[in-house]
Amino acid sequence: MNKRILFWIFLFAAMLTFSFGKANAQTATPTPNTEPPSVEQLLTDVLTLQDENKALKAEIAAKDKAIADYKTVIDNNKLELAKMSGEKTGTEQANIRLTAIIEAMIPMLRRKTVGISIF
To answer: DSSP string covering 49-96, please?
Structure first.
């Protein structure tokens, strides 16, 4: 039974392959154009291509300018981040230094008691 299923799958795949191959061969034959294009048509094609070329060059120039602007913004943000990171490190060091000073001064501020106790 398993061989029968494989046989039918193979047969179906072969039929699909041959049918699509025949359909593509029939539709792929181009019809030859017997008359050449006119001079006016060629000139209009050239002019439209030149206009498209100018438009694409302008678009590329605008994108290049935008990329350059974004690069300057990114560079400014990197400088700002470095500046803020340095300030953060400085404040953390100052905090640690002040905490150490406070820790050293706390024993000096405690009341000194004499060894006599009532209770």
So the answer is: HHHHHHHHHHHHHHHHHHHHHHHHHHHHHHHHHHHHHHHHHHHHHHHH
What are 90-93's contacts with CB under 8 Å, separation 24+?
Answer: none
| Largest Cα–Cα separation, the chain | 127
Mean pLDDT of 84-113: 87
Higher confidence at residue 32 or residue 96?
96
Gyration radius of the chain's alpha carbons: 42
Would you list the domain boundaries of the chain? 45-108
Contacts by 92-98 with C-beta closer than 8 Å and gap 24+? none
pLDDT tens, residue by residue, 20-34 = 665 555 555 556 666
CA distances from 100 to 1, 19, 94, 96, 117 (A): 87, 88, 10, 6, 33
